[in-house]
Amino acid sequence: AKLKGRNQYVFFEALEEQNKSTNVKVEYDFDNAVKNLEFIGNYQPLIDFDSGDVIGAEILVRWQHPKLGLLYPDFFIPILEKSGQIVQLDLYMLKLAVSKLNLWADWLPKQFKLSVNVSTSGFASEDFISYLQEQHLLSAEITSRLCVEITEESLILNVDAVKKHLDILKNINIPVALDDFGTGFSSLSYLHQFSLDYLKIDKSFVDDLNEVSNKVLILDAVVNLAKSLKIKTTAEGIETAEQYQKLKEIGCDLGQGYHIAKPLLDSDFKRFFLNSVSE
Ligand code: C2E
Ligand code: CA
Ligand code: CA
Ligand code: CA
C-alpha cells in the first residue's frame, strides 16, 4: 500500500526506531560476543587458473549469535563500522587467521595465502599493523602466508597512515589485495602508486561476462594493464563454468566463487583442500 503524508512519516519514524534498537543490540552484544568467541571464520578457496590448484583462501566472518542465530557480515559490519567496534573485530579475525595458519602449518603448502579483510578504520589503526609486526618477529613463515584485503576507501581516506602501513607490510612481506575493484572510481594508474599485489575484480564484472556485453573488453584491458604493473588479478563471485572459462581465457590469475566452492567451515575447508591435492 502507498503511504502518504503523515502516515508515511510515522512509518519511517517507526522504521528508524526499530533500526536504532537493532543497532544498540548489536553494539551491546558485541563485547560479549568477543568474550564468548561467537565470531567464527568461514574459508572460501581461491584457485590458480593455470594449474587449477587451490592456492589460498579468504577468511569470512560469521557471528553465531546465541539468540539470533547465524548472522552474516552484511548485516552487522555496517553497524560495527558506525560504532567503531569494527576495529576490534578486524583484529579478532586477524588473530583467528594467524591461529588457523599455525594449526594448519603442517599440511598447507608454503605458497598458500590466507586473505584477511580489514575495514578502513581497522587498517588505519595502530593495533592491526603492530600485531602483524609482532607476529612477523615470532614467525615470518606464518605471516608470509597472510594477505591483507583493503578497499579503495582505505586508500582515499587516511592517506598518510595508509602509505605508512603499506610500507610496513611490504617490509615484512605481507601482500595486499585491493578488494571490490570496479565498484569505486579509481583508475589503475592512480592505484599503482600504492604498490598493491592483487586486484580483486568485483563480482558485478563477472556477472556481466557474456558475448554481447563490452565488459569482456574492459576486463581484458584491466587484466592486461594490471599484468604490466605486476599486479595479479583475482576474479570474485564466479558462479558458472562459462564465467570460469572466460576469465581463464582473459588471463586472470586467480579465481574465487561458488562454482569453485562456497565459504566453508574450517573442517570442511581442510577436507576440500586435501581432496583437491590428492586428485
Ligand atoms: P567480500 O570481501 O567482497 O567477500 C566476498 C563475498 O562474496 C562473501 O560474502 C562471499 O561469501 C560472497 N561470495 C563468494 N563467492 C560468491 C559467489 O559465487 N556468488 C555470490 N553471490 N557470492 C559470493 P560474505 O561472507 O557475506 O561477506 C560480505 C562482506 O563482508 C565481504 O565482502 C567483506 O566486505 C565483509 N567481511 C567479511 N568478513 C570480514 C571481516 O572479517 N572483516 C571485515 N572488515 N569485513 C569482512
Ligand atoms: Ca574480501
Ligand atoms: Ca570483494
Ligand atoms: Ca564486498
Can you give a write-up of this model?
About 50% of the residues lie in helices and about 20% in strands. By secondary structure, the protein is α/β, with parallel strands linked by helices. It has an 8-stranded mixed beta barrel with strand order 1-2-4-5-6-7-8-9, surrounded by 4 helices. Helix 9 links the parallel strand 6 and strand 7. The longest helix is centred in the N-terminal third of the chain and has 31 residues. One calcium ion binds next to strand 6. The site of one calcium ion has 4 residues, from loops.
Summarize the structure.
It is built from 13 helices and nine strands.
Question: Could you describe the largest sheet, including whether it forms a barrel?
Answer: 8 strands, mixed, barrel
Distance between the termini: 56 Å
Radius of gyration (CA) equals 20 Å
Q: What overall geometry do the principal axes of the alpha carbons give?
A: globular
Count of individual beta strands: 9
Note the beta-strand portion. Answer: 15-25%
Ranges with pLDDT <50 over ≥5 residues? none
Order of helices and strands: HEEEHHEHHHEHHEHEHHEHEH
Helix content: 40-55%
Largest sheet strand order: 1-2-4-5-6-7-8-9
Q: If helices are DSSP runs of H or I spanning 4 or more residues, what is the number of helices?
A: 13
Ions, cofactors and other ligands present here are: ligand C2E, calcium ion
Global mean pLDDT: 90
Structural class: alpha/beta
